[in-house]
Structure formats: structure tokens, C-alpha cells
Amino acid sequence: MHSTNLLLEEPIRMVSILEPSKPNFFPAMTKIVGTLGPKSRSVEAISACLKAGMSVARFDFSWGDAAYHQETLENLKLAIKATKKLCAVMLDTVGPELQVVNKSEVTISLEENESVVLTPHQGQEASSKLLPINFSGLAKALKPGDTIFVGQYLFTGSETTSVWLEVSEVQGDDVVCVIKNSATLAGSLFTLHCSQIHIDLPTLSDEDKDVMKKWGAPNKIDFLSLSYTRHAEDVRQAREYLSKLGDLSQTLIFAKIENVEGLNHFDEILEEADGIILSRGNLGIDLPPEKVFLFQKSALHKCNMAGKPAVVTRVVDSMTDNLRPTRAEATDVANAVLDGSDAILLGAETLRGLYPVETISTVGRICAEAEKVFNQDLYFKRTVKYVGEPMTHLESIASSAVRAAIKVKASVIICFTSSGRAARLIAKYRPTMPVLSVVIPRLKTNQLKWSFTGAFEARQSLIVRGLFPMLADPRHPAESTSTTNESVLKVALDHGKVSGVIKSHDRVVVCQKVGDSSVVKIIELDD
Fold first, then answer.
1. Are 410 and 447 in contact (CB under 8 A)?
2. Bridging pattern class, strands 507-514 and 412-417
3. How far apart are CA 520 and CA 354, in angstroms?
4. Residue 471: pLDDT above 80?
5. How far apart are CA 50 and CA 34, in angstroms?
6. What's the whole-model pTM score?
């Protein structure tokens, strides 16, 4: 039975579905981004998350100050040392996020069909009749009939702390709304989302720039998640600012698509960004429910064809409070993998959820099962057709390496790279086996001191499906004599054997540069 992205062998034996899966050194090819917070910031908790399969740690500055996040980051570093598991760091900006200002953190009960006023006067106390907000231009943006969603930060969609409002009238700077469902706002941080309304605030705020400069730059963050990306110009401005912050010129920018405005400019944003995050929480509010799946499938296809990592959010919301996902959520995770997602991003589930480690482990297992029935053959043909001819030199080598690896049933593809680009191109063709990216450091100088590149490139592959990095000895350049290439290859093979990916008599496809030539070779291992 063949469909566009699912491969099942005929005849299908239903009983075989229940057979236990073989254990793998890599839990899944699909990567998991975990948001670190109150329930997941101790060294022990982070270590458990890393062992469960988290490869990128997300630091969300919508809440918590720089000191709090720095403490969490120091714990992450200790956990990385303890577990010997590499992990990248993602900084998530706040962007033009609208918030309810509830300074006294009182519980607010809202009753259906009652009225509530949204006011920009933040000095006033929040109550069931009045909600102060952090934006003075809301009244100018809204008109009667518009809908507003108010929910707990990283709302799951199932709790009773989310409320829909409908604008009934605008009075000066205030917006009078009718409450469409009864709800109780309890907690410190509530966000507003105005459905399909342009909010006249910069994508990168002064506060975001301050965090990037004072926290991001000293900590050499690997990824910047640019919240509420609406235009390609947003990405360009962020990149220009990063370029002024020394080491952050290497930081990859992931555009977070959260509303219809971002959807309308998706193609130009994709061209400018290094990757895409589909923020389905806000998108699910901005889009009609019946259109969400269509956008997801279309956006992931575009990212796949462009060879840029795509990350899907909001897949197992119910695991914030429960040990098992719902049936719909389990299917949703698998569909995200079959649709072509590189990584799954967990928000509330790991930030304030009761079961962060179990959530990562469960999502990893679902991803691994979905990968087994991913129709790689069809995907490969579709990608080659999309790229067209003549292919670039690198693209040709990458696709040939994947084709060879599948034909000879190789257990792993080993790629030597300095920038990480060659390894990412191989991963673009979604090989069924892991790609071991051997990052060869380069020596560079700023005329004051010498330093090696490579660590950034290695960590940045931790968000790409099927790509597993290792940092090589800097004494082995990526383009060198056959002798040094053989010696660094031996190190990579030994690493593969120790990790259980490579066994005796396995075939391995190697992609490397020798002089001016790019070479794909197949080697068979002895005992």
C-alpha cells in the first residue's frame, strides 16, 4: 500500500504492529527541542531529558529574567558533561506579544455573555470587569466583531483558563468585549492573540535586542527563534543585528510563523531564514481549524525542498498534566514526521508539565515508529525532480551518497565537513540510515588570538533530521592527504562502533573531499 508519504509492506499483518521495536542507539532520526523551565531546569532533570532524546534546549524569554535563564544554562552545561550528550541552545524572543498585566496575580473569573474592558492603562488592577494590557495601540487596530483570545502562557487548549472575546465597541483607548465562554484566569502570565489583526509593534523589540546582546552573545547561542516573523525583512533586520554581536554572526535564525501575516509571506521568509518553526498554537487561532493541516503539509514540503530545517510545535499538549498523550496527539506526532518535520518542539509539556522526561521519551518513540514507514523512495524521487538539472556539484554528491547508501544497505553515512553544509544536503534527501557528520575544525584569527571553528557547526546539526555530529581532531583538515583522511575516518568508524550504529561486516558510505575532488566511497568493515 503506497500513499504519498507512507510505506507499508503488503500483505499487512496487523499482528506485526504489536511486535516490540528493536532498540536503537539513536532514539529517533527526528530531533526534539525541549523548553527548559521550572519543571526541567535542575541538573538531574536536564540530564534525564538529554538521555531521553532532547538535542536542543529552548530558553523562552517571554517569562523569567536573564539571571534565571543563566542559572538554567549553567545546569545544562553540567548535564552535558555528566551525560556526554551534545545539546544546542535556542533563544526564543518575545516579539510583539500582547500580555495581560496582572501585577497582584489575583484569580480572575470571567462569565459568558458578560462584558470586560481591555485597557492600556497598566496601573489599574486587573479584575473580571477590567484587563490592563501592555499595548497602547490595540483600540486603533480593532473594530466591532473582531475576536480576541486570552490564554495562559503556552496554553494547551484543553484547560479552562482560556477565553474567547468578541469586540463590541471601541471607546477611546479602551476596547469593550463580550465574553464568549466562562473561564478562570489563574497564573502570572496571560497572552492575548487578536485573530488576523496586524499589531503595529516591531518583530524584534528593544528588550529582545538587549537580551541578545547581554545574554545571547556571551553564551554564544546556536539558534535564534524569531517570534511572530511576518516578513522577510524581519529576518534581515535580526541577522544584521546579530552580525554586530561578534560570535553571533554564526547563529542560525529560525523564523517562527505564528499568524496569517507570516503565512502570506511564507515563501520570501523561507528564502531569508535558516529554518522555520510552525507555531501551531497561535496559528490554530488565526486560521480556520480546517485549514491548519493544509498549511502544515504545504509549509513542511516547501522547507524540505529548500533543504531547510522545519520544526513543528504543540503536538502533545495533554502530556502537560497526563502521562500518556491522547490518541489524536499520538497520531499528530506521527503525521508531523510523515509530513517531513525535522524536529518536534515541546513547550508547556517540558516547561511546566508534570512529566517532561516521559514526554520527550514518548514523542521520540512515536517519531521512531513513523520513520520506519516513511516512504523514502518516493520522497527521494520527488526531491531530485524538484531540484532539477543541472544539479550543483554539492547537491549531486549528496544525492549520490544517499542513493548509494540505500542501494548497498549501508548502516550509516559518514560525511566530513567544515561548514556543515554538505552534511545538511545529505540529510535533505532523508536517508533511512543515520548521517554521522564529522565536523573538522578550522583555525581562525582576529589578529589578537587564535581560535577554532567547528563547535557551532556541530551543535547546529542537532536540529536536522537524521544528522548526528561529532567534532574531529583539529589536526585533521577536511581537505587533506589520503593518510590523514584515513586516520580521521578510523576515529569516526570507532565512534560509530562504540555507539552501536556500526557492526562488523556492515557497509558504510563515506562522503569527503580529497584535494579539489568530492568523493563518495563504499567501505565494508572487517571483523
1. no
2. parallel
3. 47
4. no
5. 9
6. 0.90
Contact 224, 251 (CB under 8 A): yes
CB neighbours (10 Å) of residue 90? 24
Mean pLDDT, the chain, as a whole number? 88
How far is the C-alpha of 290 from the C-alpha of 372, rounded, in Å? 28
Q: How far apart are CA 498 and CA 500, in angstroms?
A: 5
Q: Strand pairing of 190-194 and 98-100?
A: antiparallel
Residue 4 gets which letter from DSSP?
S
217: which DSSP letter?
T
- The set of residues, in sequence order, having a beta carbon less than 8 Å from that of 457 and lying 6+ positions away, is 417, 418, 419, 420, 439, 469
How far, rounded to the nearest angstrom, does the alpha carbon of residue 432 sit from its chain's CA centroid?
A: 21
Residue for grid cell 524540505: 304
> What is the DSSP secondary-structure string of 442-501?
-EEE-SS-EEE--HHHHHHGGGSTTEEEEEPPTTS-SB--HHHHHHHHHHHHHHHHHTTS
Residue range 392-413: average pLDDT?
A: 92
Q: Following CA atoms 357, 25, 455, 74 in sequence, which dihedral angle do they give, to the nearest 10 degrees?
A: 30
Q: How far apart are CA 393 and CA 92, in angstroms?
A: 35
Query: Which residue from 100, 97, 173, 98 is spatially nearest to 142, judged by alpha carbons?
Result: 173
Helix or strand holding residue 240 (H, E): helix 232-243
Q: Per DSSP, what are the bridge partners of residue 56?
A: 33, 88
Q: What is the reported pLDDT for 2?
A: 40
Instruction: Identify whether 132 is preceded by a cis peptide bond (ω within 30 of 0).
Output: no
Q: How far apart are alpha carbons 251 and 456 in whole angstroms?
A: 8
Q: Evaluate whether 232 touches 268 at the Cβ level (below 8 Å).
A: yes
The answer to whether residue 204 scores a pLDDT higher than 50 is yes
307, 53, 334, 430: CA torsion to nearest 10: 30
Rounded Cα gap, residues 55 and 165, in angstroms: 38
Q: One-letter amino acid identity for 217?
A: A
